[in-house]
Amino acid sequence: MPRTVTSTASTAWQGDLIGGSGTTTLETSRLGTFPVTWKARSDEAEGGTTSPEELLGSAHATCLTMQLSNMLAENGTPPTSVDTSAAVSFNVGEGGITGIELTVTAKIDGIEDADFQRLAQEAKETCPVSQALKGIENITLTATLS
């Protein structure tokens, strides 16, 4: 029976876009509050702050990893480990997310690379975050067995 789980986060901002700053809080998990600034989003060079794109990358990498791990187990080849990264590109001039590069490295006993590639691609297409991001045209996946 389907069940809806709601997760909550919030952001508080002071000032205008360029000179202002804020904090984003992971409310459901209570894992923390993190500073956010336009500079962190547009310059890639500000340590100690995050951006919507970094948070989106984390969500996408986590979702894909969980989906793939489940699919591998259902295939009879449960993974020993799956490590995923997501590089989210943000075009400052156009103000939009232009692509996401997903990279998966997995250790799995008893699977052929072709089967792994098929399952990884299917996981990319079907994980809920991928479904939510269908408007981003350029989402790529590189999957490697270690």
Word description of this protein:
- The protein is α+β, with helices and mostly antiparallel strands and 146 residues long.
- The protein contains four helices and six strands.
- The strands form two sheets. It has a three-stranded antiparallel beta sheet. Strands 4-5-6 form a three-stranded mixed beta sheet, with helices on one face.
- The radius of gyration is 17 Å and the shape is elongated.
- 22% of the residues are buried.
- The mean pLDDT is 94.
- InterPro entries: KH_dom-like_a/b (IPR015946), OsmC/Ohr_fam (IPR003718), OsmC/Ohrsf (IPR036102), OsmC_Ohr_Peroxiredoxin (IPR052707), Peroxiredoxin_OsmC (IPR019904).
- Residues 1-13 have a biased composition (Polar residues).
- This is OsmC family peroxiredoxin.
Keywords:
single chain, 146 residues, alpha+beta, 3-stranded antiparallel sheet, 3-stranded mixed sheet, 4 helices, elongated, OsmC/Ohr_fam, peroxidase activity, OsmC family peroxiredoxin
Count of β-strands: 6
Which stretches are low in confidence, meaning pLDDT under 50 for 5 or more residues running?
none
Strand order of the largest sheet: 1-2-3
Question: Structural class, from secondary structure content?
Answer: alpha+beta
Categorize the overall geometry.
elongated
End-to-end C-alpha gap:
37 Å
Strand percentage, roughly?
25-35%
SS element count, helices: 4
The H/E string reads EEEHHEEHHE
Query: Considering DSSP H and I runs of 4 or more, what fraction of the residues is helical?
Result: 25-40%
Main sheet: strands, sense, barrel: 3 strands, antiparallel
Report the mean per-residue pLDDT as an integer. Answer: 94
Provide the gyration radius in Å. Answer: 17 Å
